[in-house]
Amino acid sequence: MSFGQLGYDVAHLLGGGVLLLSFVLLYQRRIGAVINAFATQGTLLALAAAWQAHAQGAPGLYLTAVLAFAAKGVLIPLALHAIVRRLNLHRSVETALGVGLSMTAGVALVGLSILVVLPATEGARALAREDVALALSVVLLGMLMMITRRNAISQVIGLLSLENGLILAAIGVAGMPLVVELSTAALVLMVAVVAGVFAFQIRERFDTLDTGSLEEHRGEGR
Amino acid sequence: MPLQWAIVFFAWGGAVALAAVPRLRTATLVNVGVSAVSFLLAVALALQPFAQHGWTRTDALNTPFILVSAFVGLTTSVFSAATLDQEGFDHWRIRAYHAAYQVFMGAQTLALLADNLGVMWVAIEIATLATVSMVAVHRTPAAFEAAWKFFILCGVGIALALFGTIVLYLAAQPLLHEETGLSWAALMGVAARCDPNTLNLAFAFLLLGYGTKAGLVPLHSWLPDAHAEGPVPISAVLSGLLLNAAMLAVLRAKSIVGANPDAIAPGPFLIALGLASVLLASVSLWRRRDARRFFGWSSIEHMGIVAFAFGLGGAAANLAGLLHLVGHSVIKSAVFFGVGRAAQAKGSQKIADISGLVATHPALGWGLAFAIAGIAGMPPFLLFASEFRLLTAAAAEAPWLALALVAGMVMALAALITVLQALCFGPPTSDAAGALDGWREAAAAAPLWLHLAVATLLGLAMPGALAAMLAEAARIIG
To answer: Which spans are transmembrane here (chain B) (predicted)?
Structure first.
């Protein structure tokens, strides 16, 4: 498959869509909008998995697609909305990094991942390498979001979108064994993280700027 | 069922059974029973010839660690049975704690046994989930904070490791059949012909990912808190077992990359992370006021020493690293038994509040004193042998690096001795409520002394079969 063929183009379009949604996640300020953007990203990821299932002739990937849609397109966003209501966070506007600055950093990370992945994978098939480059961009943008956001929900969404990048990489590598099992296991981890937010009722991310209270929590206060 | 899977599924079956037991006494006894049978199964497995079996394999590299893991799992379950009523659990927490303990033990064994790198990843993930729930079980703000930090940092870590695993498959894809694509043995076979650049990329992610779980600087910050906030017995298995599984995963990745002559040498990366861990920990140890966090930092130091040894490579340094991993498991869990019991008896885990243990609790106090001396690398315990071997090898190959390592180790040694004197020989402090009756006090101290005896035996006269196995393992790592 190469550029200009339908299978290649659709896979690229969907992968690119997932990456685009990572940028949306990066600049959205309102927590509700962030959750909706994440739901859209999950749905696009499910479409990408379904397309790969069709293109590679790997029916197992349909399962990954269904699970991704059910969990990331519907259930996790609903749960996150519920947490936001319960913790009364829905009015809060995040003072993340400025839009211009986070976009610049995001574009730099995408450039970095292309520069790292494409020369390093010359032996592999074109579609797989470009998919991995897109996926690494999504992973790095997820990490950037985890670093720049203040409250725990946005941080968890950063981690969830990072995991979307992993699934994008796994489904793009044709013929990888255990893809369905691994993507399901990764999904279990993410569901557990969301359950953790519920159980722990964590509002702030762990490294707040107020180190005084932190030392107290760590049992290191005098 | 083959023995490999029997060990894993016996523990997981035990977890299901334990989730149904609400009574403390019954649950602790069942837990000891399940751990004892698991230990016997592990011994039986070690006596079998090495083999690859589906997704699992036994070889010289993992067999010693399966034995250590089953041994520490058993002694920790005994310690847990003696001291758990001090934690004040209700019946839901008793169920959750014991079920999570056996889920962790099964996943830990599977992570060590796995030949398929995908299965290994899933096993380490399950072990992480189980330990997070154990760290959070007290439901205090500090426990939640520790569990949350553990969860998020290790979540990112294992996510990166999965990415590394995918890229590793991408490197080997043109050379392998689909079914064997993630098998370590198959990957070793074709590693020399893989695209070296793709291997480099995979190694970077695997090292960072599993390095987070092994507590290597700069991704270490979950470790001290997770060790300090969970129930007392958990620190012993966290430090003694989980770190080994993560380090073994790093070693499997290193051996694949090392087998390709055109790929980057993995050694310098391990040396850099290891040295950074040793130096940062040796400074941080001086600033700790919480006893369990102090020994958590000491685990970071020891993982740094181990990473340094494997980074140096060669038969002598690799053997030193393996001995150090075994010794650290045995002695550090002994330290946590002692510190944990002392913290319960004194009602505080601040170093200032635990003092003069030798006067108030002689068996516990002397045991802890020997264990801290052991973890500081004093003879006759195993860590003295491993550190001596490592320093000889390092002095011959890289004297300047050895100098930096020695500086870190000496600083850490001094901090450990200071804390040893404060905890064991200072002016005695009064006990809080929470004295155990006679036999349980003995059952709480017995695992500590047993571990000291094992560490001495391994340090002075290691059984020939085990020594041969470790020497063979040092060759596998390359």
So the answer is: 29-51, 63-84, 118-138, 150-172, 201-219, 231-251, 263-285, 305-326, 363-386, 398-420, 448-471
What is the rounded average pLDDT of the residues A136-143? 94
| Residues B266 and B329 sit within 8 Å (Cβ to Cβ) | no
Kindly state the average pLDDT of the residues B151-180.
88
Task: Answer positive or negative: Cα dihedral of A199, A203, A208, A214.
Answer: negative
Judge: B118–A121 Cβ closer than 8 Å, yes or no.
no
| Domain enclosing residue A129, as ranges | 6-217
Q: Are B367 and B263 in contact (CB under 8 A)?
A: no
Q: Answer yes or no: are the C-beta atoms of B155 and B129 closer than 8 Å.
A: no
Task: State mean pLDDT over B5-24.
Answer: 94
State whether residue A91 sits within 8 Å of chain B by CB.
no
Instruction: Say which residue the tokens 């849609």 belong to.
Output: A69
Residue A1 lies in a domain: no
Half-sphere exposure of B32 (CA within 13 A, CB side): 15
Q: pLDDT band at residue A202, thresholds of 50, 70 and 90?
A: low
Q: Do A220 and B290 touch (CB under 8 A)?
A: yes
Q: Report the distance separating Cα B209 and Cα B256, nearest Å.
A: 16
- Token pair of B52 as six digits: 């690859």
Residue B174 inside a domain? The answer is no
Contact B23, B85 (CB under 8 A): no
* Dihedral angle sign, alpha carbons of residues B375, B381, B382, B386: positive
A5 CA to chain B: closest CA distance, Å?
22
* Percent of chain A that is helix, strand, coil (3-state, to 5): 75, 0, 20
Which residue, among B46, B104, B48, B94, has the nearest Cα to B72 in the 3D structure?
Answer: B104
Cβ of A220 within 8 Å of Cβ of B289? The answer is yes
What 3-state DSSP class applies to B350?
strand
DSSP-derived 3-state class of residue A92: coil
In-domain check, residue A15: yes
For residues A138 and A19, the answer to whether their CB atoms sit within 8 Å is yes
Residue B449 lies in a domain: yes
At residue A210, the pLDDT reads 35
Taking the CA atoms of residue B411, residue B414, residue B418 and residue B419 in that order, the dihedral angle to the nearest 10 degrees is: 60
Residue B441 falls within a domain, yes or no?
yes
The owner of tokens 């290891």 is B274
Q: Is residue B303 part of a domain?
A: yes
Whether A47 is in a domain gets the answer yes
Instruction: Provide the 3-class DSSP secondary structure of residue B373.
Output: helix
Longest Cα pair distance anywhere in chain A, in angstroms? 67
Domain assignment present for residue A166? The answer is: yes
Q: Read out DSSP for B160-207?
A: HHHHHHHHHHHHHGGGS-STTTTBHHHHHHHGGGS-HHHHHHHHHHHH
CA dist A127 and A27 (Å) reads 29
**Cβ–Cβ of B170/A121 closer than 8 Å?**
yes
Q: Which residues of B touch A168 (CB under 8 A)?
A: none
What integer pLDDT is reported at residue A203 of this predicted model?
A: 60
**Do B200 and A120 make contact, defined as CB atoms within 8 angstroms?**
yes
Q: Which residue has the tokens 């790592």?
A: B477
Task: Please state the domain count of chain B.
Answer: 1
What is the count of structural domains for chain A? 1
Across B91-112, b (16+ Cβ under 10 Å) vs e yields eebbbbbbbbbbbbbbbbbbbb
Residue B320, domain extent: 277-478
Task: For residue A220, list chain B residues with Cβ-Cβ distance below 8 A.
Answer: 288-290, 293
3-state SS, one letter per residue, for B392-452: HHHHHHCHHHHHHHHHHHHHHHHHHHHHHHHHHHCCCCCCCCCCCCHHHHHHHHHHHHHHH
The CA distance from A39 to B395, in Å, is 56
CB contact under 8 A, B141 and A182: no
Average pLDDT, whole number, for chain B? Answer: 92
Nearest CA-CA distance, residue B23 and chain A, Å: 24
